[in-house]
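Consider the following assembly input.
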Amino acid sequence: MKLLDGNSLKKEILDSLRLKISTYSAKPGLAVVLIGDNPASHAYIKMKRKACDLIGIRSFFYHFDLHVSQSKVLAFIEELNQNPEVHGILVQLPLPPGYDEQKIIQLIRPEKDVDGFHPINLGRVLAGMDALVPCTPAGVCALLKAYHIQTEGKHVVILGRSNIVGKPLAALLMQKSNPGNASVTVLHSKSHDLESLCQQADILIAAIGQPLFVKPSMVKPGATVIDVGINRVENSSGQVLVGDVDFDSVCQQCEAITPVPGGVGPLTIAMLMQNTVKAFESQMGFSSLSDA
Amino acid sequence: MKLLDGNSLKKEILDSLRLKISTYSAKPGLAVVLIGDNPASHAYIKMKRKACDLIGIRSFFYHFDLHVSQSKVLAFIEELNQNPEVHGILVQLPLPPGYDEQKIIQLIRPEKDVDGFHPINLGRVLAGMDALVPCTPAGVCALLKAYHIQTEGKHVVILGRSNIVGKPLAALLMQKSNPGNASVTVLHSKSHDLESLCQQADILIAAIGQPLFVKPSMVKPGATVIDVGINRVENSSGQVLVGDVDFDSVCQQCEAITPVPGGVGPLTIAMLMQNTVKAFESQMGFSSLSDA
């Protein structure tokens, strides 16, 4: 059984981005916007800004208190859209109740939408065009590619249909691309035939946010299992992080598997950095998002 | 075996649109742009304009000769974008060689993109938001709904991954909606396991443009079979239209099936009319595309 190590791949990707950025006289800039004081959001932002520091991206942190008006946030996003030093804009989700998440996301200029959440970026992904791809799906593809896991012709089963993981990942893996060219099945809470379809997967990807949901009976011997879940659960020794896959039992029968933590998670940040550099290069005219 | 009759459903939909339009003092307007003289394109446009006439949509036909410059076409699209009497813009595809199809499509204001080909409309479909949905996938959904064919929890297998049928249809059927909530599999020319996955489909949708590709061995007894293909083939009596499904042999073992012609085809035009009315209503402020 091969362990798919997201941390070492993240390091490789960040190293190569750092090298690339060092050759540019201008520096990419990432604006991170937070509303309120969710501790998990603070922790994520800290990790993202640390990655920026490490590779030479300037990060700008804008913190609004919980009661800022939506119109003020929108006006601020508009300023960031116009700011030539800001190449990527990230609004840390989830927003506190009372804000119109879609309205805020859709105001971000698609060229600066480094989270890849704007519908135009999702549409470009679905159409097989170049795009700022949502970071977690991009991370899964990066992992498959780095470990030379063939997807062409294979049956990929994705558990979960979220807008930030399941749906864009399905879109990516069915394209004429590498990774891609897979037979792709998307399953979710309403699926009648979940277990039997999972059993057929050459590559099983779990992204449903249900701790330890995937059991050995759902996995074909020799399959590759990618675990996107990050769930906080209580056990006798306090809070621990577990994935959507029952790793200890599933790992014995698969060809390759991601650990949690240390699998897909680190790559989400690496892909955010990659998107920011891509957005920078495109805005500086070094490259452009093409329609190929 | 139930025959899913697209012609009668088309008539119902057009009747109801006609009634609706008759209550409005202003009339929806659809601009149809053709470059060159492809006979099939002329035939399609004639059908579309006839449907417009029938229900009270004003159609404007703009015909450019084969050697018009792309910049002239783009400037003209921009005029149509600004024209308040034009609520929908349709550029008849395929374009002759030498034109940048994506550039032309992406210039159409998304609110007027009644073909639903703009990436932002595709992205809205993928994200489960209200959108101008590509007409053929919308027609398949209309047919499933009209005939009360349950999709929730069912396994839908889609043969084909085109940007105008397979991919948006997969996106529609995996949403939390009705039709929708299906387990969705997308297969294509690279799929290794095509036949065995087709055999598992509760609803099998063929959209690959391969005459008579789907044989009885690929269909589960009792399945619903939707044939999106329209292929011109030669036989002893001249040219005939056949679908992607070998209808005569497959129909004997399925619960319900679409004929070709007379199945999905007519609904594509009905959905174009529906999109044009929707675009009109949205632009007139009678309703708006929501992010629900």
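The CA atoms of residues 205 and 226 of chain B lie 5 Å apart. Ask yourself how this observation constrains the way the partners meet.
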